């Protein structure tokens, strides 16, 4: 049998693992931060109608510049944005890859504050960009002075700021973003995949875009928008930044079906986002209960809770899976991540954790 070792793979990919959140179908799936509520029926109907209209024209390539979608995304974000400052691709992962293709590459580096989104080092490797992980503080925040020192020391070509941060849920004041952009000569992307779940009134880094042409803010329809299956991520930046991404995108990268589905969903954005408050409520319920049970939940501004104080994460993962519940074990010692689901899903998870707590909870702020 042929294995990878028999093929002339690029050196930097040898020994690497593909992005690997398990895709197991069980009754309670709380492992990849999806919105677990279904789509609103009116949106489903409109999307289906829009797709049917497009199917007749699928013999032709789609609008390469997806202008109508960019206009709709700009209107959705507000902040005075216009279509020429918007970009989109098949998930914000592809957007971030295009940023690295345009601004990274051999001899260039990407800096981020870790633990953070596990795709960043993989996207760096795939574009032959050097990866510089800078550790966060013990509470997973990023101290502005330490961040500026790290930026000056490493002088990276790119910085990705995950805000709120995955997998820890930690927010980041805009002052930290400003300080990092000012200290960096390269490109800074603020990954706001979870922005809609932040406390009401939390400012978006979109507010900082004017006058900062090296700054970009990425968003996705995969999380709050309950549209992970469509693969639509997007970015707001200076028109010149968008022009750079146009140099590396594949022609017609956004299919006519994707464009039509996203446009239809955006017409129903209020309904699509209707469960965000409910999800935030379940998130806070999870954090409170896990704390009572003797685990160590971290404050979260997103739709998931990162919790420490777990004696054996593999045992907890397996025991939950045995009960039809999947959460995430992403390699931080004694720490796990769970997505806030519906009330019923959350109840199932918390009941199972209550049973496990006597043997698995180490108490708050202890990792022995
Ligand atoms: C889920 C996630 C994304 C979104 O990925 P898509 O490709 O848009 O589905 C981006 N950044 C972070 C930090 C995420 O957790």
Automatic annotation (TrEMBL):
Pathway in which the depicted protein is active: Amino-acid biosynthesis; L-histidine biosynthesis; L-histidine from 5-phospho-alpha-D-ribose 1-diphosphate: step 7/9
Entry cofactors: pyridoxal 5'-phosphate
Record has Cell membrane as a keyword: no
Reaction equation(s) it catalyzes: L-histidinol phosphate + 2-oxoglutarate = 3-(imidazol-4-yl)-2-oxopropyl phosphate + L-glutamate
Keyword terms, alphabetized: Amino-acid biosynthesis, Aminotransferase, Histidine biosynthesis, Pyridoxal phosphate, Transferase
Entry's transmembrane regions: none
InterPro entries in UniProt: Aminotrans_II_pyridoxalP_BS (IPR001917), Aminotransferase_I/II_large (IPR004839), HisP_aminotrans (IPR005861), PyrdxlP-dep_Trfase (IPR015424), PyrdxlP-dep_Trfase_major (IPR015421), PyrdxlP-dep_Trfase_small (IPR015422)
UniProt-recorded Gene Ontology molecular function terms: histidinol-phosphate transaminase activity; pyridoxal phosphate binding
Aminotransferase class I/classII large domain boundaries: 28-351
Gene Ontology terms describing biological process: L-histidine biosynthetic process
Entries under PROSITE patterns matching the protein: AA_TRANSFER_CLASS_2
N6-(pyridoxal phosphate)lysine: modified positions: 223
Statement: the UniProt record of this protein carries the keyword Amino-acid biosynthesis: yes
One Pfam match: Aminotran_1_2
SUPFAM superfamilies, alphabetized: PLP-dependent transferases
EC number in record: 2.6.1.9
HAMAP family xrefs: HisC_aminotrans_2
Binding partners and assembly: Homodimer.
Family, as annotated: Belongs to the class-II pyridoxal-phosphate-dependent aminotransferase family. Histidinol-phosphate aminotransferase subfamily.
Protein name stated in the entry: Histidinol-phosphate aminotransferase
Source species of the chain: Pseudoclavibacter caeni
């Amino acid at each position: 049998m042929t294995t990878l070792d028999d093929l002339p793979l690029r050196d930097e990919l040898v020994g690497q693992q593909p992005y690997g959140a398990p895709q197991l179908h069980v009754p309670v799936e709380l492992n990849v931060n999806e919105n677990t509520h279904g789509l609103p029926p009116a949106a489903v109907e409109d999307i289906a109608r829009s797709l049917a209209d497009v199917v007749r024209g699928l013999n032709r390539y789609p609008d390469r510049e997806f202008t109508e979608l960019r206009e709709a995304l700009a209107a959705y974000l507000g902040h005075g944005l216009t279509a020429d400052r918007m970009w989109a691709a098949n998930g914000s992962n592809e957007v971030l890859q295009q940023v690295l293709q345009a601004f990274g590459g051999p001899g260039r580096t990407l800096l981020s504050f870790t633990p953070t989104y596990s795709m960043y080092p993989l996207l760096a490797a795939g574009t032959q960009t050097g990866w510089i992980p800078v550790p966060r503080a013990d509470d997973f925040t990023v101290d502005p002075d330490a961040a500026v020192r790290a930026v000056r020391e490493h002088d990276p070509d790119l910085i990705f700021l995950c805000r709120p941060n995955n997998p820890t849920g930690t927010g980041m004041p805009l002052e930290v973003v400003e300080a990092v952009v000012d200290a960096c000569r390269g490109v800074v992307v603020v990954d706001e995949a979870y922005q809609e779940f932040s406390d009401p009134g939390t400012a978006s880094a979109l507010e900082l875009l004017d006058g900062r042409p090296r700054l970009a803010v990425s968003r996705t329809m995969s999380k709050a928008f309950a549209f992970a299956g469509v693969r639509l991520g997007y970015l707001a930046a200076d028109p010149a930044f968008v022009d750079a991404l146009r140099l590396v995108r594949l022609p017609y990268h956004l299919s006519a079906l994707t464009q039509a589905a996203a446009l239809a969903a955006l017409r129903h954005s209020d309904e699509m986002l209707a469960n965000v408050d409910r999800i935030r409520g379940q998130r806070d319920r999870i954090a409170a209960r896990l704390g009572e049970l003797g685990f160590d939940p971290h404050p979260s501004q997103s739709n998931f809770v990162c919790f420490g104080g777990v004696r054996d994460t593999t045992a907890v993962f397996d025991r939950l899976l045995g009960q039809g519940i999947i959460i995430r074990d992403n390699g931080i010692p004694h720490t796990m991540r769970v997505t806030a689901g519906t009330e019923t899903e959350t109840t199932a998870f918390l009941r199972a954790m209550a049973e496990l707590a006597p043997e698995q909870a180490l108490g708050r702020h202890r990792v022995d």
